[in-house]
Amino acid sequence: MILTGPEITKSMANGKIRISPFSIEQVNPNSYNVCLGDTLLTYSDAVIDAYRPNPTRQVKIDQSGFVLQPTELYLGHTVEEVGSDFYVPLLFGRSSVGRLGLFVEITAPIGDIGFHGQWTLMLSPVRPLRVYPGMKIGQIMFFDTMGEIDLYSGKYQGAAGPQESRYWRDKVGKS
Predict the structure, then answer these.
(1) What's the per-residue H, E or C state across 7-59?
(2) Which residues are CB-neighbours of 7 under 8 A, at least 6 positions away?
(3) What CA–CA distance (Å, rounded) separates 32 from 113?
(4) Which positions, given as ranges, span the membrane (predicted)?
(5) What pLDDT, in 10s, does the model give residues 125-144?
(6) Which residues contact residue 42 at a Cβ distance below 8 angstroms, ignoring those fewer than 6 apart?
(7) Which domains does the chain have, with CATH numbers?
(8) What is the mean pLDDT of the chain?
(9) Which of 36, 101, 46, 109 is nearest to 72 (CA)?
(10) What are phi and psi for residue 6, nearest 5 degrees?
(11) Is the pTM of this model over 0.85?
């Protein structure tokens, strides 16, 4: 079952959901709006290698915004640190942002129970698009669980800012 907006607010109050900073104005009927942070990462090599660490370039978005380009993958982050040890969070782009031609988090929307931190956003525009720090970019929904809970303790725990892929760590030592 999906949590309603009032249940998200109640779960914030009783500690079952953590969102920081939290604003009641960002609570929707069945989700919570999250905002774009001020840092983007892009991969700097022409070819990205899944089995090796990849160099990145960092871009700071100032108040005049930053223009995303269609042939580039941008890793952004939420302003908010979001997590729960009780519910499964899922992050989706806001429909208003999708209507501007920006794909947000289309391949990895599910978060793990027990993850707490800023969420990395995979941003892919279909045409040049100016984005701004603090703009509402996505929404997180929370789903109730069934069964025993095994809390996340993986490689992205406590993320602050955009996190490049660490997929290569899964390959190390395996044949």
Answers:
(1) HHHHHHHCCCCEEECCCHHHECCCCEEEEECCEEEEECCCCCCCCCCCCEEEE
(2) none
(3) 17
(4) none
(5) 999 999 999 999 999 999 99
(6) 56, 57, 59, 72, 73, 74, 75
(7) 5-46+57-146 (2.70.40.10)
(8) 94
(9) 46
(10) -60, -35
(11) yes
